[in-house]
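Marked as duplicate of an earlier ticket. Keeping the data here for the record.
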Amino acid sequence: MPSVLSQRLRRDLGMTVAVWFAPDTAPETALGFLRQTLDDAELFVDPQNVVLVVDGCPGAVDPVLRAAEEMQERCGSSPRVDVQEQNLGQGGAVARGLEVLLDTTEAQYLCTRDVDGDHDLYDLPQLARRLEQLRDSEGQEGVFVVGSRADRHRPMGYARGELEELLNEVTVQTLTALGSPPDLRHCRLYEGYADFQSGYKVYTRQTAQEAAQALRVADATEPSEEVLRWGVQFISTVELLRQGAVPASVNRLTYDQQPQTTFEGHDDLPRAFGRQLAWLFRHLQVRPELAWPILDTALAGTLLATVPGGSETLLNLREYVAQHTWRQSAPRPWPRGMMF
């Protein structure tokens, strides 16, 4: 007999999965990832409220259709398959999945998951339960829940882990300085800042719509920036926090290393993270005299400068932000070599 929570989730929860695999991924490997993502999903989500968005990836179509057929055979109902011929990036696929769920279902809660099996299904009930509690305690629909990794460095590597934490700190401090301090009461139990860059999130209908709209508006405003390729978590989070949405954080499982990644920027971290910070300062129209103390304070606190090549990465990131936000060189960098 399903639990009351399972019954509520099957009635109220929708799930979207952005599907993209590298061109050299074997069909059986892709199918394995899909199976890992969808196995037992029907325990918590009505298959008709599951949307698999194929993001311009011809090699993924057959594995997705096979996975959908297997789910149909297993539980008598099939997920929706939404094939996009053009690859717009993960942001476009996530926005599309949320929009389909909003337009075609009555799901009250919408979750986003990656296709590589890194987002464990059995964490989903805890994220959804927390969203219910948060909505009730805050008395509003402007809430969302982040599935936070216990450690950012192990799954992504040291440099990327440090830089993701940098993004979170600069985001919070910038919004605070501009008079819109995020409400982080439900995120500070386990960590300094919530793992906002995590792709495992659960939204209400309101915050799902706001997250998708934020990506669409950012793309339309600066089409040359290709924000849908890199801004799926960052842009939507900035806009949700700016609009006063209240986040909560729930610890979740993650792999020691990512099974696969769509992250663009392994070979150019200053650009990968600098373009996000530059977008933040441009979008919020932050003056240089306000932005630099916030950014340099966060940079001074990262331990990336203590590893070989780390200082160069941070200096190049500063210069990228300066050039792509205000079209000027970065000011003199923060002091190095000081005793502490």
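See parent ticket for discussion. The mean pLDDT is 93.
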